[in-house]
Amino acid sequence: MSEQEACLKPDAFLDCEDVILLYEEFLELNAEDYLSEEDGALCATSPACENKNYFDVCGPEQPSPAGIKDFLDDYMVEVGGGKKFIGTAAKVLQSFFEWALEKGYIEDKAFEANREVLAKYKKRY
């Protein structure tokens, strides 16, 4: 986040930070819904997963297009996000996935799937 803070205006950085915090919260609350059966079973039975949060167990390749859609359509609305902020959230997530691809944390296939979902939000909002 320090890279983004240096590059963004203060208001834009606060929006970015808010989106990331909300997305982390969403994943923490709903992780089991978006893990593959194999990953879910591994986490349920592994003592190494006890008392750990989503990001201690899963990497940036885990968020699925369905999870992104649920985050933007449902969770953002539940927490009071308006249309403009949902559009901002889509842009922030797109930047995050671009960064993750650049750093080698996600594969091209996952990036493209997520990009397709986010493109619909950028057009709509």
Question: Ranges with pLDDT <50 over ≥5 residues?
Answer: none
> Percent of residues in helical segments?
over 70%
Number of helices: 7
Number of strands: 0
Using the CA coordinates, give the radius of gyration. 15 Å
Shape: globular
Summarize the entry for a quick read.
With 125 residues, this protein is an all-alpha fold.
Write structural notes for this entry:
This protein has 125 residues and is mainly α. It contains seven helices and no strands. The protein is globular and about 45 Å long. The two termini are 24 Å apart.
What are the key terms here?
single chain; 125 residues; 7 helices
Strand and helix layout:
Elements (H helix, E strand, L loop, with lengths): L1 H6 L2 H25 L2 H9 L8 H4 L7 H14 L4 H20 L5 H17 L1
Helix pairs in contact: 2-5, 2-6, 5-6, 5-7, 6-7
